[in-house]
Amino acid sequence: MSSRKTERLINLTIALLATKRYLTKSDIFRTIEGYAGSSESKERMFERDKDELRAIGIVIEVGGLDPFFDDEAGYRIRPEEYSLNLGALTGVEIALLSLAAEAWKGAALSASAQTALLKLHSLGIQSDFDAIPSMAPNLNIFFPSFGVIAQAIAARKEIDFLYIDKDLNRHMRRLHPFGVGNRGGRWYLVGLDVDKNEQRTFRLDRIDGDVVAVGLSEAFEVPPQFYLVDFLQTNIFEPVDSALVAIRHGKGHVLRRQATITETGEEFDRCQIPFSNLSQFVEVLLWHGNDVIVISPDSVRSQIILALERVVEAHYV
Amino acid sequence: MSKESKELGSDRILRLLDLVPFLTSHQGIGISDLADQFSVTQDRILEDLSTLWMCGLPGYTPLELIDLSFDSGYVTIRNAETLAKPRALSSEEVTALLLGLNYLMDQISDADSNLREIIEKLIVKIPHTASDVHPGQVLVSHAVPATYRATLLEAIKARTHLDLIYHSLNEDEMGHRIIAPVEIRQERGVEYLLAFCFSAGDYRSFRLDRIQGISDSSQELPPTLTKSSPSVPKMPAVVRVLGSMRMASEKFQLNNSSAETVQMVEYFSEDWLMRQIMSCSGEVVLLEPSHAVLRIRQRAALALAAYSTDFKRP
């Protein structure tokens, strides 16, 4: 874009923001610098300028059309639409918003966080970090498509992506995305699977390649009662059962975090541990080898014994 | 022509519009500081300022034009009231701030519940239009407390020593480590602290999410060696996948596109390799190295023995 065009667009923005009434095209061509040539070429210039400003998010209002008076259409930018208005903000609030933006450094939405931060700092309010504990927030979201997903959730747009099944085959999924979040070290995407017409949960690390937003905004409604924290709790994390296990002293630290110790022995503690997913629980138990032994229930115990027998059988030299 | 000159026109317009309120609230800012803030070169900022200098209200006499002075390396702006307020947040900016606040909420301890209240109010204050994320739709928490990260960064800067309580997962041991932190780095979304570990007498990497406590170390210690990255050698192993390829692929970071059942994997710690193989219930079998194969067999046999003797069902 030439400097002259840039100047013209800035001047147009200033003039439309400063005006108290709608400016007609003839007002604009007469007063704003840079509109030249035949009336057709001025028209074309203005139409393009208007589209460009709208494309970058500036709301230009059309008004002043009164059929009785055969009025020409007029244009203006309302300052209240153009500018940031968060009401009065305190220094502590600015500091918290700055931390919220800085958390994105190097992560998915860092460019938008950075421009948001510049706008907040342009309010001219001094940040007050005194009341806030020393924190170095880091969102550390490295999924390249996170921004696309978050934006699609915000705009209620459908998304397409390839999802990896347990045999590493990829299947195209189309989703109405309702929510995205992490828990227990994993990222989950929840939404309505359009082809299956059911609510489903997907793991972000099992999405292959790019997520693509398709179609128009506001393409679907999020169920009014949808609340991600509750959804993940009910569908993934709610304990389905618990097991009584013996854990060797000084071992099994991961399991001990969720365990209730029922009896302390010489070498082992007996603990009751709730679990939400049997096969994952079995994996964790096996991971601990002979430091963790299942006492009950039988279903878990026999599954572990069977697995151990298979491991012994398969490993020989 | 420089690469940077291929910038999109729309990016430039937005930066010019954002420069005015920033300058208005930062009168006298240096050119280099300004370039840093907007993540562009100083030349680019000077071009931007020259363009703004030609802009203003209709009339375009000195009375209406934006008045900028920047010849001494410091910038001041006058006569730019129309653009003096920052632009409204874009929907992606709102999303970034909302998710960031959601995350901060998760990071703030119960002791600072007043801050939580302030954050809750901020979440409401940020303009939600129909097209913005509802707080109930996102959940951003982090296994690493932001206060831990702050303590580590401060110690790196001040070159002080720390006492970590660390859970070393591969050995399943919890213990104290006296360390001199060097740097924090990220790999595949996991944060690691590189530090000289006095307990081990060498450099070690610590996963931030396995640090269970941090305090200042009062122990008198010798100065650390020069700052050099340790190189832990990766070792090769061979596995055969009998069950779910996805499980094997996720556990051993296999090449995702290969459906071969016999695959090469890399490992740093034999304990890790052994535990990962055992957790696969025999669906992934280790073929090499043979000493690790033997250890797995022994370990599984020991566990089986425990089931048949010490922990017999009543």
TrEMBL record, chain A:
Q: Give one Pfam family.
A: WYL
Q: Where is the WYL domain?
A: 146-208
Q: What PROSITE patterns is this protein classified in?
A: WYL
Name the record gives this protein: Unannotated protein
UniProtKB/TrEMBL annotation, chain B:
> What region holds the PafC HTH domain?
11-122
Secretion signal span: none
Give one Pfam family.
HTH_PafC
Q: Where is the WYL domain?
A: 150-214
The record, for PANTHER family, names: PROTEIN PAFC, PTHR34580
Q: What is this protein called?
A: Unannotated protein
The major lineage groups are: unclassified sequences, metagenomes, ecological metagenomes
